[in-house]
Specification:
alpha+beta; 2 helices; copper ion binding; copper
Length: 68
């Protein structure tokens, strides 16, 4: 199991937080995603070798947010 924390820009409310959480959770191989609006982060646990950092970044960006 791997853990990665991304800095997410553009979240302004709880709905944004939920949208990023959903986008990350839908990536195949992701076991959990904890998104913090206050900290501007998304911490993702995923199966090693099944998920790439680029796939996680793409999911966040497709949801309409930026990864710093």
């Amino acid at each position: 199991m791997e853990k990665l924390t991304l800095t997410v820009e553009g979240m302004t409310c709880g709905h944004c937080e939920a949208r990023v959480t959903k986008a990350l959770a839908e990536v195949s191989g992701v076991k959990s995603a904890v998104v913090s609006l206050d900290e501007g982060t998304a911490t993702v646990e995923f199966e090693k070798g099944q998920v790439t950092e680029d796939a996680l970044i793409d999911a966040v960006e497709e949801a309409g947010y930026e990864v710093a």
